[in-house]
Description:
By secondary structure, this protein is of the alpha/beta class. It contains 7 helices and 6 strands; from the N terminus they run H-E-H-E-H-E-H-E-E-H-H-H-E. It has a single domain, classed as 3-Layer(aba) Sandwich (Rossmann fold), CATH 3.40.50.10320.
Amino acid sequence: MLLAAQAGLKTAIVDLTEGELSTNGDPLRRSAEREAASELLALATRVSLGLPDGLLGTDGSHRDAVVETLRELAPRVVLAPYWEDRHPDHEAAGRIVREACFFSGVEKYSAGSAHRPRRVYWYMLHHVFEPSIVIDIGPVWEQRLRLLDVYPSQVSPNGDSAPSAINDGGFAEMLRARATCYGAMVGVSYGEPFHVVGPLGLPSLPGFDDSFGRRSNRYQSYV
């Protein structure tokens, strides 16, 4: 999303829940953190649906809310969490978004003008998967690290926070190690893996020009 914003594209985030069940922080603090992150990401808009944290996907109205938002924003590309994850809400979000992207293009489904995004890409949270594509995020790596700094209630240990799976001080190191690993697969410093359902159509084979693949003499896992 940082790369897209830098390229002049309009980007948006839709928060399905307010994260009210999070171990640390409260709604007011979480809202301030989201605003800071939105500014760093240079978002065109950010929408909160206010669906129930911990119960995501348990009611058909949740999918309808996403369909309505897709029709309002009319995105060309949608990013969603991979549908297998340690957090049930993350899994539900991946499923709901995929279903909503389909039904938002069905004229007779609900109200509003039909719109179906061109592609859905699933990003990695906790469970690993075999990546379909890896994006070079080296040019925006420092900005990505700064994004973690604006979520201290979630990823930073402090005196009044309860221990959690991501605030023990090692979360940023994990992200760096993972990005380094996937970057090495395609010959860049840091890479972000995505999963795609079905083949991608390309104008030519990647590698015919210098915009893809090996960068100078950097190590690359695959040749």
